[in-house]
Every structure is written in C-alpha cells, then in structure tokens.
Amino acid sequence: SSPPMKGLNILDHPETDTAKTTTFAIPLTEKIDPKNPNIQALIIAPTRELAIQVSEELYKLGYDKKVRLLSVYGGQEIGRQIRALKNKPQVIVGTPGRILDHINRRTLKLDQVETLILDEADEMLNMGFIDDINTILESVPDNRQTLLFSATMPGPIRKIADKFMKDPVEVKIKSKEMT
Predict the structure, then answer these.
(1) Exposed/middle/buried for 86, CB within 10 Å: 0-12, 13-18, 19+?
(2) pTM, 2 dp
C-alpha cells in the first residue's frame, strides 16, 4: 500500500504538478468516514485557483462515497462559507488567509482533523503565508497525518516539517526528461 494509505507523514517535492492531487486525493477519500460529521481533513493551497482545482478533483473522487467537501478562499462571500460550514463538511480545502479568518471567527473547528495536506508549500512561503501556516498548524491535533508537497525545500519549509511532522518519509519524484 502507498505511504499515504499507511498513515505515514509524507514530505514530498515533486518536480511537476502532474497527478499530484490524485496521489493524495484517492487515499484521502478512502480514509474519510462518511458517518463522521466532523472536519477530518484540511488541505491548504496557496491560491484560489489551486484550491478550486483540488476541490474539483476531490469532489469527483469522493462523490460515490458521499464525502462532504467545502472550499474556503478569499474573493468568495464569507457569509456563504459560514452557512456552508453548518452543513458539516468533512474536508476543507482553502487558502491560508481565509482558513485563518474562519479560525479567528470560530466558524472553523479543526480539533478533529486527522489529515493535513500542505499543497505547494514553497509557493505559500513565497507569497508570505509562513506565519499563517504556523498559526493554522497549531490549531490542528498533533496526532494527525501530515502530507507536505513542495517543489523545493527551502529552510523555512524544512523548519515547518521539523516542527510539525513526526518522522516524515521523504519522497522525491523525478519527472522524465522532456521529449
């Protein structure tokens, strides 16, 4: 079985975005308990576009299992998101700023999160979200599975991995040469 299915903490720096979402989405949808109304997974993406892309892929993969999913990102009316959070989504996909906004408003309860995914962590660092990420990570349980995807491993990302991940398995995926 794959490292995500085994519940291992994954530190991954793929060279391309190809099929990365599927790599974590399939095991994640299998892991979600549709009878559990709590937020079981949190996926943090650097941009609204990536959050939407990840949400669409997860929605397709989790449809038959009836996984409830909600995207939260800036540029979308927060009142609508707050109402949607009352429908008990099991997976949240969002951008750091909007996730933090919901945490501060107490509209997003992350105390039952079992899986945390940081997608394109180096992009979040480049966009200045490092403090937001640290604050969000302190809002989720310590005994969760964490998957961190990053094309590069700069010092601040390595520090996050060291601080918030227990014995991560590091995976380097080499893409084939361009033909």
Answers:
(1) exposed
(2) 0.83
